[in-house]
Specification:
Elements (H helix, E strand, L loop, with lengths): L4 E6 L4 E6 L6 E3 L12 E3 L9 H8 L5
Antiparallel strand pairs: 1-2, 3-4
């Protein structure tokens, strides 16, 4: 599988927004999605470089990570 980009619904703007794969901080895999709830079985954090992965997630959610 190859990811080229993503779309998400921006609730503040009320519109669908497209993004490049470089903007993805993390993605989740729910192997038993029932269209009602999300229970990720795996969480993936791209770890390409020193400013990516955990550091990108920390910056994007404005939080501390250990």
């Amino acid at each position: 599988m190859r990811l080229n980009g993503f779309d998400y619904f921006d609730t503040a703007k009320g519109e669908l927004v497209s993004g490049a794969k470089a903007k993805i901080a993390m993605w989740l895999l729910d192997t038993d999605y029932d269209e009602r709830s999300l229970f990720p079985r795996q969480v993936f954090l791209p770890m390409a470089g020193a400013k990516d992965g955990w550091n990108k997630l920390k910056r994007d959610i404005r939080a501390e990570t250990e």
